[in-house]
What does this fold into?
Amino acid sequence: MAKYRAIPDGYMTVGEVAKKMRTTVRTLQYYDKEGLLSPSAESEGGRRLYTDKDLVTLNQIISLKSLGFSLDDIKERLISLETPADVANVLTEQADDIRQKIEQLQASLSSIEQLKAEVLQMQTVNFKKYADIIVNLQMKNEFYPLIKRFDDDTLDHIRSKFDKESGLDFMGRFNRLSDEIVQLQIENIPPESEKCQKVIKEYWGLIMEFTDGDMSMLPKLMKVGNIDTATNAWEERQKIVNDYVGPALQVYFSRLGINPFEEEKQ
It folds into this structure.
């Protein structure tokens, strides 16, 4: 490290750097101690001196730290600044990191707004449901509005039966069947047709899989699925599905000679 009797042009003290970069002297001293950013020179009086190049490196460090990188990660990501290409590479990496962070923040903001809307619709404080909604928002599960419709016993059943992977798999199959049912209605396929009954058999199979064959859960599921006025895209689709599934299930059960809803009452 070069030493100077006085502070020459082009050099700055640690205090001047801290002021310019809106950081603290203690932080700069810590970065020096950790080997992230050492001053380029020192005065005979022991004052540590920095250059404009050091400011660019410091900007790298501050930017990466604000994005959540650890000091060890930052050390590995610091790029030498010997050529214009080096500087350009640094700025490109910073821009990419910032874009990624913006996407993450936008996703977090969207989740917060969605949770807020669900909380206001629920009208009661239920932190267990709030937590379930948060988890499903993070999973990008489009069926998260269903959570507020379930009672606590049904939610306990869901928590015990499904983990993240199996839950997403189940909802994926349910979503696919719902799309098929909507398409059947669009094509005016009659409920008694073989094509419709094949889909309805699979649909009923999913219900039995969900309930583990517990008929006492059927009234609760019917209540959840009963939608008077749709408030979102899922509910709009579910109303279409319900209108078609009801008559189709009647045909399905009559052919089997059973009525699971009557059996449940008994």
Remarks:
- The two ends are 90 Å apart (CA to CA).
- The longest strand covers residues 2-4.
- The mean pLDDT is 80.
